Amino acid sequence: MTRRLVMFAVCLALAACGRPLTGTERRFAATVQGDALAVDRVRVTDTALLSAFSMERPARPRTACQDRILPPPDGPVVSVSPGALVLFDRVYYDRSLYRRDFLQSYPEQMSLWHAMLLAHELTHVWQWQNREKTGYSPFKAAGEHDPGADPYLFELDGRGFLDFGYEQQGAVVEEYVCCRALDPEGERTQRLYDLLRPHFPDIARQETVARAGVVLPWDGAETRGICS
Q: Is the pLDDT higher at 5 or at 37?
């Protein structure tokens, strides 16, 4: 994601209307960011822009929940395009990924991949809404996307949540959603919860959706003990 992309998104923001979060999306957000996020200000829209941007990065080690629920990469380097972009209170989804309701069957059923991406992007909105504390700006976030680097990779190494980069913070929240849904009693799940709770006091420790209702993006994923 480049500065050029951010500037183009600024132009989009002046014209796009977008939709508010649906009732089910709000219910899900309440279990993650909770009252720390002003959900009434959030707008979601789609754009054909994002698929025009791509970059190469090294394939990630298959250690995190969010990587192990996807098929393994074909080689040591992967080409990726941003699935979504946040500008202020507005979330832009690539048109191929956009849905009128990402969690329409929640809490009886939940697409885990959609829930994770939504949680990640809402974390960027939270960063903007709390920029006096986070120091967030769209240009700072765009600056993390250096060619060949992976700004989402993180290690649980004792740092506080705000000591991580902006994309890493989104990835931490995304990882917690994955772990909470698939391995709620896992040691990694608890460490992520402890890391997030000081900033999201309402974050739920247990997933509302039963394990049988969690829809995985890849049938070949081995989820037993995935975050233990």
A: 37
- 117 has pLDDT over 80: yes
Evaluate whether residue 224 is within a structural domain: no
CB atoms within 10 A of CB 1: 20
In a domain, 222, yes or no: no
Find the domain containing 110 and state its range: 3-215
Q: Which residue has the tokens 């720390």?
A: 36
Angstrom distance (rounded) from CA 216 to CA 28:
17
Tell whether the torsion through CA atoms of 161, 166, 172 and 173 is positive or negative.
positive
For residue 220, being part of any structural domain is answered with no
pLDDT digits (tens, 9 = 90+) for 135-158: 999 889 989 988 878 999 999 999
Residue 221 CB-density burial (10 A; 0-12 exposed, 13-18 middle, 19+ buried): middle
**Omega before residue 72 within 30° of 0, cis:** no
Six-digit token string for 95: 């048109």
The answer to whether 48 touches 97, Cβ cutoff 8 Å, is: no
Residue type, 191: R
Neighbours of 114 (CB within 10 A): 20
